[in-house]
Each structure stands twice: as C-alpha cells, then as structure tokens.
Amino acid sequence: MEKSPETATAAAEVAARFRSLVDADDVGSIKQTQHLMCLPSYGIMADAMLVYGKAMAVATAARLDALITILGRLQDSNAVLTHFNEYSERCFAEVSSDFASKTRLLKSMKADLDHIFSKLRSMKSRLAATYPDAFPDGAMTKTMDQRPNLESPLD
C-alpha cells in the first residue's frame, strides 16, 4: 500500500505533535513492551499511535491521581464533619435542658411583668379618675404605655 505525500506529511506532523507530549524514553519503553517495531511499513503511523496511546495513558493516570487526591480530601472532610456533628450533638444535649428551663423562666417573667404593668395602668387610670387635677390633659395618653409591642412583627 503506497502512501500519498500528503498522508505521509500529515502522519509525520501528527507524530511530531504527539511526541512533544511525552518523553522519548517512554516511547522507546512502550515500543519494547508492545513489540510494535515489527509492524511492516507503518512506521510513522505506528509511532503516532504509540505516542497517542502513551499520551492518553499519561492523561488517564493524571486524572486518576487527581481523582484519588480529591477522594482523599473528601474522605478527610467527611471525617471532620462527622466529628463536628457528634461534638455539636453532645454540646446540644448538655445545654438543651438548661436552655429549656431558662426559656420557661423568661416566659413566666414576661407574664409577671405584663400583670404588673396592667395593674399599674389600672391604678394610674383610677388615680386620674379620682384626682383629675393631678394629671394635666394629654399627659395620661403619653405616659400610659410607652413600651413597644414585642409580639408584633417588625416592619
């Protein structure tokens, strides 16, 4: 089978590009291991295919190494996150009962304070009704309840 000059030139160019990707020693070792030197009249194409195969093997090995590195990092991250979750769970178990008791205490304090302020408002209104001169006009509405409503949503 005869090769046209264009095919030979293209094959030589492809072989040169592939050879630039890998070491010449690697090409020689692959030639020895695969016994490709005995292919008749396919010298340039065999070299190109050999170099291409080596380049693909190197790229695949590099990808595999990268994937193994990523897998190791992900396993390390998973171990750290698992440890942190266990630690957080222990800490939450320690403080949850204390937090619940403090929440109940705050709710009872709020109820007590609401009761006290309602009593103060009723006493103030009784005083204003009994002694109208004690409070000037408009003073009762301003001082009646100046607390913000904590249960209404913020705007």
Automatic annotation (TrEMBL):
Pfam families: KxDL. It comes from the Eukaryota. One of its GO terms (cellular component) is BORC complex. Residues 70-135 form the KxDL domain. GO terms for biological process: lysosome localization. InterPro entries: KXD1-like, KxDL_dom. Belongs to the KXD1 family. This is KxDL domain-containing protein.
